[in-house]
Amino acid sequence: MPLTTAPDALPTSIATEILNLLLPHHRTTDPAPAPPEAFPHQLRRIAAFVRDGAPIVFTLPGFPCKSPNPAKVLGHLPDQGERLSLTFLNTLCTKIEQIYPPGARVIICSDGHVFGDLIGVPDDHIDAYADDLRIQMGRMGLHRLSVFDLRDVLGDLPHDTKRTHIHERYAPTLEALRAEARADDQGLALYRGITRFLVEDTAGWTGTRSALQRVCRQRAYGVIQRSRAWGTLIAEHHPHAVRLSIHPQPIGAPKFGIRLLDAPDAWTTPWHSAALRRSDGRWTLMPVAEAARMGRLVRQGGRDSHFDQNRAACPPGAQ
After folding, report:
1. In a 10 Å sphere around its CB, with 0-12 CB exposed, 13-18 middle and 19+ buried, how is residue 253 labelled?
2. Handedness of CA 94, 278, 262, 68 (dihedral sign)
3. pLDDT at position 2, please?
4. Is residue 52 a contact partner of residue 11, using CB atoms and an 8 Å limit?
5. Can you list the alpha helix ranges (DSSP code H) found in 245-297?
6. What's the average model confidence in pLDDT over 152-179?
7. Phi and psi at residue 73, in whole multiples of 5°?
8. CA-to-CA separations, 48 to 15, 37, 56, 60, 100, in angstroms, rounded
9. Half-sphere exposure of residue 17, counting CA atoms within 13 Å on the CB side?
10. What does the pLDDT look like over 16-26, one tens digit per residue?
11. Are the C-beta atoms of residues 85 and 291 closer than 8 Å to each other?
C-alpha cells in the first residue's frame, strides 16, 4: 500500500516556517530560546489559516496612547518609535507573504480608551493618537496593518459609558486577580510591572512616594481588569486570530509576546519612551530625559520625532 502524506503535514510545515520568522522577536522572560514545537497553540492557529488558504490574522493589543509623563515621551502623538514599530510589523507580514502567498495582516487593537481614566490620559489625546496611527500607516504604505479600537465596537457613546460596559461584561473580579497574583509568578510580574509604569507615568504628584505607590497598586488591578476585558472582547470579535502581546509571555503561552524594537528591558514600549538612533545606526528605546543626554533632538513633519546619537547633544540648559 503506497505511503501518503498526512493531510495536516503541509499546513503544519508552513506554519512552522512562519513561526520561525517570529521567534527571533519573541518577547519573554524565559532565559533560553525555544523551537517552534514549543508553541503548539500558535502553530495550530497559523495552520488553520494555511489550510483555508486565507491571510493569517494577528491581533496585537497595544499602542494605547503616549505616557502622560513628559520626562519619558516627546508628546501625546506617535513619533519615530511608533513609526519604526509599525514598519517592523508590516515587514514581518511581507516576509510571511514570501513563503505563504496569501500573506498576513496585523490588527492593532488600540486600548487607550479602555483604561485612559486609570492612567491619567485625556480621551481626546487617546483619539488623536489612534487617528494619527491610521494616518501614519496610510502615509507609509503599511497596508497590512489596521487599527481597531472601542469606537469600532461601541461607536460614539461617551467614553465612560464604553469603559463601564466592557468592565461589567468582560472584566474578571478583583478577588480573582489578587488570588492569581498570589499563586502565579507571571501574574505577579504583570501586576508589579503595571504598578511600576503607573508610578513612573505619574507627573505632578505632590504627596509622598509611599502614598503614590499605594494609589498605583490599587489602580494596577483596575488596569489589568480592563486589559483582560479588552482581550476577551478582541477574542470575541476576532476568534480565529493569532494573539500577539507587547508584554513578555512564557514559552508555550496562548499569547505570543513580541518585541517591537530594541530596549534595555522586556517591558519598554514606544509609547513609554522615545527612539534614539545610536552611532552604529541601530535604534533603541529609552526615556526622553536619558535620550536627550545621548543625542540631539530631531524634528520631522513639524514636530519632535526622535534623538540621534550621531549629532551632539545640547549642553545642559541650551536650546
Report:
1. middle
2. negative
3. 41
4. no
5. 288-294
6. 93
7. -130, 165
8. 9, 16, 9, 19, 13
9. 13
10. 999 999 999 99
11. no
**Residue 266 CB neighbour total at 10 angstroms:** 16
Exposure b/e, 50-79, CB count within 10 A at least 16 = b: beeeebbebbbbbbbbbbbbeebbbebbbb
Cα–Cα distance for residue pair 22/41, rounded to 1 Å: 14
Mean pLDDT of the chain: 90
In this structure, what C-alpha cell is assigned to residue 56? 493569517
Give residue 7's pLDDT band: very low, low, confident or very high (50, 70, 90): low
Indicate if the pLDDT at residue 315 is higher than 60: no
Q: Please report which confidence band the pLDDT of residue 279 belongs to, taking 50, 70 and 90 as the band edges.
A: very high
Cell for 91?
515587514
- The amino acid occupying position 197 is F
User: How far is the C-alpha of 203 from the C-alpha of 216, rounded, in Å?
Assistant: 13
User: Residue 116 corresponds to which cell in the numbers above?
Assistant: 485612559
Mean pLDDT throughout 210-231? 92
Cell of 130: 489612534
Tell me which H or E stretch contains 50. Answer: helix 40-52
Element (H, E) at 140: helix 123-140
Q: Where are the beta strands (DSSP E) in the chain?
A: 56-62, 104-110, 145-148, 242-245, 256-257, 274-277, 283-286, 296-300, 303-308
Q: How far apart are CA 154 and CA 161, in angstroms?
A: 9
d(Cα 130, Cα 108) in Å, to the nearest integer?
Answer: 10
Grid cell for residue 140: 507609509
> Does residue 4 have a pLDDT over 50?
no
Answer yes or no: is pLDDT of 69 > 50: yes
97, three cell numbers: 507573504
Q: How far apart are CA 241 and CA 150, in angstroms?
A: 18
